[in-house]
Amino acid sequence: MTDDSATTHSEAAVPRSTTWRMLGLVLGTAVVAWVVDFLSKEWVLASMAEGEQRQVLGEVLQWHFVRNPGAAFSLAEGSTWIFTILASAVVIFIVTQLRRIRSLRWAAAIGGLLGGVLGNLTDRLTREPGFFVGHVIDFIQVWGFPAIFNVADIFVVGSMIGVVLLVLANVGLDGIRRTDEPKAAASKDADPDATQTLDRDDRPGGRT
User: Fold this and answer.
1) Is 154 helix (H, G, I), strand (E, B) or coil?
2) pTM > 0.70: yes or no
3) Ramachandran region of residue 49, left (φ > 0), alpha (ψ -120 to 50) or beta?
4) What region does 176 belong to: left with phi over 0, alpha with psi -120 to 50, or beta?
5) In a 3-state reduction of DSSP, which class is residue 198?
C-alpha cells in the first residue's frame, strides 16, 4: 500500500528546495553585479575628475568619466526621472517572478539583470544632483562604440542577450524546453512528454 501523504510531501519538497537554490543563485549573481559596479564607480569618483580620460589599451579601451542623466549608454539624456521609474518597475517585476525560476541559466541571467538594473538605479537615487534624478556614473569607452558605459550596463546587456537566447531556444523559467513541431503536437496524446524536452543539465536532480 502506498503512503499517499508521504508521496505528496516528498513531491512538494522538491520544488521548494529547487526554489531556494535558484533564489540563492539569482540573489548571489545580483549582489556580485551590484558590488562590482558600485566599487568601480566609487574608484572613478575617488581617482578621476569629471571629464578626465585615461588610456588603458591605447585607443581601444579608455576610462572617460562622465555623469549620465539618461538611459544606458547615455541615451535619452534629460529624462532621468522616467528611467528611474522604469528601473524600479523592472526590479519589482523581476522580484515577482523569482519563485517561478527552476533553471540555472535563467537564474544567472535574471540575477545579472537585477544586479545591473539596481546598480544604475542606486545612482539615480543617491548621486548628484539629487534623489530620483541622480546622474549615472559612466566611465568605460571602447573604440568604435558611440557611447560611454559602466559595469552595470555590461551586466544588463549581457543578461538580456542571455534572456533572448533562452526565449529563442523555447526554454521556460521552469527549465523545460518546449517545441512547436507538428509531429510533436500530433503525438501528444500518445506521449505527453513528446512536446516537452527537459534540459537535464539545467534542472537540479535531473537524470543523466
Assistant:
1) helix
2) yes
3) beta
4) beta
5) strand
Can you tell me which residue has the cell 534542472? Answer: 203
Distance from C-alpha of 144 to C-alpha of 12, rounded to nearest angstrom: 53
Q: Hey, what's the cell of 35?
A: 558590488
Length of the chain: 208
Residues of the chain with confidence (pLDDT) below 50: 1-15, 182-185, 194-195, 197-201, 207-208
Q: Which residues on adjacent β-strands are paired with residue 137?
A: 67
Which backbone phi and psi does 87 adopt, to 5 degrees?
-65, -40
* Residue at grid coordinates 524600479: 88
Dump pLDDT digits (tens) for 131-162. Answer: 888 999 999 999 999 889 999 999 999 999 99
Q: Which residues contact 105 (CB under 8 A, 6 or more apart)?
A: 162, 166, 171, 202
Residue 203: what are its φ and ψ, rounded to 5°? -105, 125
Any idea which residue has 519563485 for its cell? 99
Which residues are catalytically annotated?
138, 153
